[in-house]
Amino acid sequence: MPGRIEVDGRVAGTWQTATLTEIRRETPRVSTFRFAVPGWAGHVPGQHLMLRLTAEDGYVAQRHYSLASAPDDSGHIELTLDHVEDGEVSGWFHTVARPGDRIEVRGPLSGFFAWPGDRPALLLGAGSGVVPLMSMVRHHRARGLTVPLRLLVSARSPGDLIYAGEYGAETTPVFTRSAPAGTPVGRMTAAHLAPLLSRPPADGWEAYVCGSNSFAEHASRLLVAAGQPVDRIRIERFG
Amino acid sequence: MNTTRGFTGRPRATGPQLPPGQYDAGDDWPVLSAEVTPDLSPADWTFRVGGLVAESRIWDWAGARRLPASAYAGDIHCVTGWSKFGVRFGGVSLDTFLEEAGPLPSATHAVAYAHTGYSANLPLADLTGGRAWIVWEYDGRPLAPEHGGPARLVVPHLYFWKSVKWVAGLELLDRDEPGFWEQNGYHARGNPWEEQRYSGD
Fold it and tell me: Which of A7, A58, A234 is facing B1, going by the closest CB pair?
């Protein structure tokens, strides 16, 4: 399957300084970190970056994270990070980081999971897997795109739903542990996909799946069973 | 050096086996693949060596299993940052397959491709001399589908995106031709010890 965009190797290979400007709490375990990156080349929704933290003794920790923000001209980007238990990097972000801190980033990276906004997009995410998908939703809104876009997002409970206040009619939340009264509890099923895949847009959906491996396996199998072509399913998994 | 205020990192033993920028995944073996895990049974699996060879060859499951067994025990390194120490894969050395097909002197590179359409390019020198395997066992058990079972390529001295899951064949070429991730911004070779992650590295 071809990539969606060309990646500029020179840009992807250059470390830049990113200055933390704002921290926003999303859920008890998840926060969004906004950075000023004056040399940021811009990105396509769905792309990620690599960041690195450097200790006094020269030890370096590097991680890949999806970009949460839509591309804009503000010279800022946003990452939304889970606080992983004993997480070396996420632990620093959630317990030490404050506005003014500087880290290093390189990117944007990888053209495969990118969505430029040109095709109908069916987005399936779970937990913090919704992060790159939210960049797509925000892009869709910011540009006033009319191409169909739908988001199915799975969370344990309403309190664990990242970006809960931002979703609109394009989004269907699925709750696996507890849900508001009247909303069923349980994992994503064929019934969630049936209305979307029985009446797909004229050119069909480009499906983007992001989440843990078990979610990615489950969601991608549901898509295939519902008739979505295998070569139009893009998956980003994380452990 | 741009130090990060307040960052110390976790307690660490920077052993010689950890390439720069990597961390020890411990018992975890994250699954990373960009496509749907295929329903591929051993009965449906084949492995072909073609292109610049004396004779294109194709093996089915039984034929591949009859070849002399070979194993890899050591470390693997993923471009996303994790390394996993002391893994054990069982299968057949790629040298065995290549010897039967007979690479032509003009062959310098290969594209390894999967039954799903995924591909990765490799210099032929990275696939020969006991440096690459077709494997179907992990830790003495059948390789799980999400890790590339029934059979995958393993090239442990390069980043693991080169170790094509659900491997279907090798096409030998007289030039380097980018594969799936290489077309998406990743490095042509992917040596973890030189941090060849992205095309600018």
Answer: A58
Residue with tokens 């009965």: B43
Domains along chain B with CATH numbers: 40-194 (3.90.420.10)
The answer to whether residues A6 and B186 touch, using CB atoms and an 8 Å cutoff, is no
Alpha-carbon Rg for chain B in angstroms: 17
Q: Is A104 on the interface with B (CB under 8 A)?
A: yes
pLDDT digits (tens, 9 = 90+) for A158-184: 999 999 999 999 999 999 999 999 889
d(CA A143, CA A72): 10
Per-residue pLDDT, A168: 96
Question: What is the rounded distance in angstroms from the CA atom of residue B78 to the CA atom of residue B192?
Answer: 8
B90-128 residue pLDDT tens = 999 999 999 999 999 999 999 999 999 999 999 999 999
Angle, alpha carbons B59-B62-B65 (nearest 5°) = 90
The CA-atom distances, in angstroms, between B131 and each of A88, B58, B109, B112, B148 are: 33, 21, 15, 15, 19
Question: In which residue are the tokens 């590179």 written?
Answer: B109
Best residue of B1, B2, B3, B7 to probe chain A, by most A CBs closer than 10 Å: B7
Q: Give me the mean pLDDT over the B52-69 stretch.
A: 98
Contact (CB<8Å) B186/A55: no
Angle of helix A213-225 versus helix A190-198 axis, rounded to 10: 50
ipTM of the prediction: 0.86
State chain A's mean pLDDT as an integer. 94
